[in-house]
Amino acid sequence: MYVYEENKQASKLAFRVSDVRHVVIVITDGRSENYMYTQAQAKALKDGGALVFAIGVGSYVDDIELQEIASAPSNHYLFKTTGYDALPSIKDTLAIRACGQAIQQTIGRR
């Protein structure tokens, strides 16, 4: 979420200029250092029209925080893996969900 804050102006401009649905993929292996800030940034992205996928890696991930980062329904936008080496196991499902959802919602907005 740090990147969003640093590039807030560019991100807001990109949301206004483009009629293409933006997809954000957050990968984490733990808990955020500032829970409230992370939730606020995730909300800002979703309120701005982005589809947010949350991927938890390993056993130290906060499930509730992941659910709050991900777009709704979280069972569609949230993934968990046992480690970084397991990320390839979700890539096809993630690609289908990210691209399919973005295309459907972009067409629906026209």
From TrEMBL:
Classification via Pfam families: VWA
Transmembrane segments: none
Regions annotated as coiled coil: none
PROSITE patterns: VWFA
Domain VWFA: 1-94
InterPro entries (UniProt xref): ECM_Assembly_Org, VWF_A, vWFA_dom_sf
PANTHER family: COLLAGEN ALPHA (PTHR24020), COLLAGEN ALPHA-1(VI) CHAIN-LIKE (PTHR24020:SF87)
UniProt-recorded name of the protein: Cartilage matrix protein
The gene coding this protein: LOC101857111
